[in-house]
Write a structure and sequence with these properties.
It is built from five helices and no strands. The chain is mainly alpha-helical. It has one domain (4-54, 85-138). The radius of gyration is 16 Å and the shape is globular.
Length: 145
């Protein structure tokens, strides 16, 4: 049986990955109007979910049943108020969040299922590649970063 603490870490990071990718995907779609980037980010987002669905040792329902939002003391930590941010800042902070959370998923799944862990590693490197292509094509590096 997998520890509840590990399931909560996986749940939080899977959500973080999917949410961050969705933000980046919408920026690519609506702001950058980059169809290729949108498709790539969507594929990575779906891939992150599909890896859990393929696991024989863990399920999305199990992750959900171990979620404890009420006891999460840092759920409302946000950006520092007063900073001037641009859409490029939003993209860059979310793509960083995605890479970090994919690394956490990769590490946690080493305990549960090495094949799934390798899948998250591949998605992490796919994200590095997508980030480089999107930033280069759109010139997304902002002055605030």
């Amino acid at each position: 049986m997998i520890e509840n603490k590990l399931l909560r870490i996986i749940d939080a990071n899977l959500n973080r990955t999917r949410e961050g990718l969705r933000v980046c995907e919408d920026i690519a779609r609506f702001s950058l109007r980059n169809r290729g980037a949108t498709k790539t980010l969507k594929a990575i987002r779906h891939g992150a979910t599909n890896l859990v669905l393929k696991s024989k040792k863990i399920s999305l329902a199990e992750l959900l049943s171990n979620r404890d939002v009420a006891k999460d003391k840092t759920k409302f930590i946000d950006l520092t108020p007063g900073l001037e941010i641009e859409i490029s800042d939003i993209f860059m902070s979310n793509i960083e969040r995605v890479k970090e959370s994919l690394r956490v998923l990769e590490e946690c799944f080493k305990i549960i299922d090495e094949k799934i862990s390798r899948g998250y590693r591949k998605l992490r490197f796919d994200t590095y590649d997508a980030e480089k292509r999107i930033v280069k094509k759109a010139g997304l590096i902002s002055c605030n970063r």
